[in-house]
Each structure stands twice: as C-alpha cells, then as structure tokens.
Design goal:
This protein is an alpha/beta fold. The protein is 39% helix and 16% strand.
Length: 388
C-alpha cells in the first residue's frame, strides 16, 4: 500500500510513451508525446553555460536563494509583465525549475485538506503536486466554445468552498493551450479575493500566445498583488528545459516560508545554469517572437491536417488536445492505435484533471518541424478512418 500522501496520484504517461517510442528505433515515428522543443535557446546561453562550468562560484551550495543577478532579473521580468514593482531582495527566490517552485509554494501555503482550484483539463504534474502537499484539487472546467477553450464560470463558482486556500492557474494552460481572457481573469481574481485565498500563477508559457499577443497577469488586478505568487522558468519561453532554473516572486510576508521549504527540499539551484538563465532573461523580444511564430506555424499545420477530427484549437503553448471520446475511444485506446497503426507517439490524458480527461489525447507540436507534421492527417486516417 502506498503512503497516504500518494493517494489519488497517477503517473503522467509521458515516460511510458517515450520509452515505447525509443524502443521502436523508428526514425519515421512522429514524436508528439513529450513537451520538448527542437528550437535552440537564446543566443549566448550555451556559451554562458560552458563558461560557468569552469567557475568555482558555480560549483557551490551558496547562495541558497539563487544568484543575486538572476534574482534581480527575474523580479524585473515579473514586474514588467504584472505592472507591480517587486524589490528582488524581499520577494524573489530561484528554484530548480518551475515545477520545483510550484511544489515549494504549495508546501509553504497549504494545510492538509486545504482545497486548490485548478482549470480543467490541466497538467497532471500540477495536480500531483497539490496532492503531494496535502491539498485537495478542485476543478473549474474549461469548455469548448467556437472551437476554443473557454472558462465555464459557473464551474469556477462551484469549485470554490470555505476550504479553498489557493488558486493554481496557468495561461496558456498545459496541455490544452487554453488562454484566459482579461474578463475571465477578472472573474477568477474576484473569486480568489472572496475566498481570501492565494493566487499561485504558473507563468511558464504566459507569452507564448498565438491569437492575442498581450499576456494578462493576475497581480495586475485590484488587490491581487498582495496575494499573488508568480512561478516562472526558462524551460518553455527560452527553450532551456535541461537547465532546470525557475523563479518564485511572492509577497514579502511569504517569501521566508517558501525559502525555508526550498532549502529543505532541493537545497540549492543548479549553479552552472544560473548565469545562462540570466543571459536568457536579457534576450530581446524578437527572440521569443521568432520562436512563437514557428510554433504557431506548426500548430496551424496540425489543425489543417486534422480538419474533420475533433481537435480543440490552442491559443498558446506547445500542445493541443483531441477529443477522442467523440470518436468512441479513450485516450489510451487512441494512443495505442496511433502508435501501432500510424507510427505516431501521443500521450493519453488519464488523471490530467477531472474524470473527463480520459477522453482526450495530447499532441505536442513544438518538437517536430513542419515538414514532418505534414501527412499527420493521413496517419490519423490510418488509425481512425472507421471512427470518423
């Protein structure tokens, strides 16, 4: 029997699909299962990493909160996106990636049994971290309207209770690519204030937007700065997954508690990666704009190839969902068909939100070039022709 803190947790499925794809040793197999990208990091990042590997200061446990220059740059980044002036010494810590930061924040804010509101569907890694911290996930459904994901406000209302301690929100959300409008954010923030809850904002993809290029930060709304905790990382926008560097920007009254958790959890951050992360945070806007334009091209090819299939258009991010329940299949069944009949690796969504997530299949379009994505429709036909 697993220990109680693991109750309700499930594996993310990506590792299993990745292993099956690797074992096939098939160069023609489309790798749409894992949230990777083949686009390179900003200019100067690799060089800064090489240089840091030879520096004694980078080979140290200290400083525990992260390098000063990186903390300052992260605070400036969040200040710029939120409109709130954050003084880095009192508000900012560096984490070993964004998800490490999310877990540290949850451990610093939740008592056992506290409830956390999340959008649905959502990345299972966020759900699992809520459970690991002793929290209870409550889901606010996103529904498909006019071909895109839209927050169901009545579901949001139903998800909030007297036990609500935090909202854990992401926009664009993984894996759906759902983007909250300014009006949606206003409703979410109002619910957060009424519940006297923390707003934990996962900003990992906040600027990877395809249809409306203006991100909305929850701390920019009335009376939200004092309750918003922003967790970001260099993994997605800066294409630096393997560097494992993130940041937490929080109200001063909470930052020491998060720091205590951080020291007790991962202890310190990746020293040889922090200088490179600082370089990335100084990259010009054109760097991300170019990457986003390429990801949008790939998204559009997938949407064009799968026209006629129940695909939900993502408005940002690296992935999209196919409603395979509409084809009479579970995500697991659809994933198996694609792998066996069409040489496509894709991840089923079991546990990625509420029970309905089992009826979706995730396709990651960030890691395959347009040339390889063309023909995806023929592969789907090979797997599902009789189900259309």
């Amino acid at each position: 029997m697993p220990v109680s803190r693991l109750a309700g947790m499930a594996g993310i499925g990506v590792d299993r699909m990745g292993s099956l794809a690797d074992q096939s040793e098939d160069a023609g197999l489309l790798r749409l299962e894992n949230l990777d990208t083949d686009l390179r990091p900003p200019e100067g990042v690799v060089e800064a990493t090489r240089e840091a590997a030879a520096e004694d200061d980078a080979n140290s446990y200290l400083p525990f909160p992260g390098f000063d220059a990186l903390r300052a740059a992260a605070a400036e980044r969040v200040s710029r996106s939120s409109g709130v002036a954050y003084e880095w010494r009192r508000t900012t810590l560096i984490s070993a990636g964004g998800l490490n930061g999310i877990l540290n924040v949850l451990l610093a804010t939740l008592e056992p049994g506290d409830e956390v509101v999340l959008p649905d569907p959502i990345y299972i890694g966020l759900v699992n971290r809520v459970r690991l911290a002793g929290g209870v996930p409550r889901f606010a459904r996103c529904e498909v309207r006019d071909g895109v994901w839209t927050l169901d406000r009545s579901s949001l209302h139903d998800a909030v209770s007297e036990r609500t301690r935090a909202f854990l929100m992401m926009s664009p959300a993984m894996p759906s690519g759902a983007v909250l409008s300014r009006e949606d954010w206003a409703v979410v923030c109002q619910a957060c204030r009424r519940a006297d809850a923390w707003m934990i904002y996962d900003s990992a993809m906040e600027r990877i937007l395809f249809d409306d290029p203006t991100p909305v930060h929850p701390a920019s709304f009335e009376a939200m700065a004092e309750r918003t905790i922003t967790v970001g990382s260099v993994s997605k926008e800066y294409r630096m997954i393997g560097w494992r560097v993130g940041w937490i920007v929080a109200p001063p009254r909470l930052i020491d508690d998060i720091g205590l958790v951080s020291i007790s959890n991962v202890v310190c951050n990746v020293g040889i990666a922090q200088a490179a992360a600082r370089v990335a945070l100084g990259a010009p806007e054109e760097d991300l704009a170019g990457a986003t334009a390429e990801w949008r091209r790939r998204r559009d090819v997938v949407l064009d190839e799968l026209a006629g299939y129940p695909v939900v258009k993502p408005q940002g991010g690296w992935s999209l969902l196919v409603d395979v329940a509409a084809l009479g299949l579970t995500g697991s069944q659809a994933s198996q068909r694609l792998l066996e009949r069409a040489r496509v690796a894709a991840t089923p969504m079991d546990g990625w939100g509420s029970e309905r997530s089992a009826g979706f299949l995730r396709l990651v379009f960030s890691n395959e070039p347009v040339e390889r994505l063309r023909g995806l429709g023929d592969r789907f036909d090979a797997a599902f022709a009789e189900r259309r």
